Amino acid sequence: MDTNEPLIHIAARQAQQLSRRNMLATGAVAGIAAAFAIPAVADLVEAATPGQSTDRAKKNDITVLNNGLYYEHQAIWAYNFAAGKLTNTAVGKAVLAVASANLTDHQAHRDILKSAIRSLGGTPVKAEASYDLSSYINKGEGNIDSDVNIAKLALALETDAAIAYTFEAAKLKTPALITAGASIGTNEAAHATAIRAAFKSLGVDIAIVPAAFFNPTTRSAWILKV
Does pTM top 0.85 for this prediction? Predict the structure, then answer.
């Protein structure tokens, strides 16, 4: 199937093929993201007491964690914003199922990051009223005009989150927080995989895991263009 095909054509041909088994399979993949990293991250943040870091290291880690928190706020806003634009079709419901699981994880990431920042004596960055996603839309990496394009936009955001955490975690100075950041990054990678699995269950002929790594070089393999 052409992944650039309009939603109306996909829905017409694939909605009847979206069996209960396919829906359950999609939900199972999304469930991996929900359980994969959060408990371990919570334990690691709890272990990262202020006494383990110098003032300079704490300031560094607060900045890095706030960078991550900014993008968690953005993801939460994006999922909530897009949810209201999904249709009540089989395709829309499949996208919503994965989006809901991913949103729950982002909310957990937000809470963990805020806790870690406060434990280091910092002030968590606040969520903005809205976020500009036009750079993704202008590059054809998703849109909000159809269920399929909303899923593609979410995929691009999750792919970038997975890549970003790889770089941000390496900047942290507190060992426990480095591991926590890497764990969240792994969870973001699971989100991207879950979205691609949803496309697969809808009949789109793509590899669920198209590359062995998440980095700027492999980014184009993970995202799906409009």
Answer: no
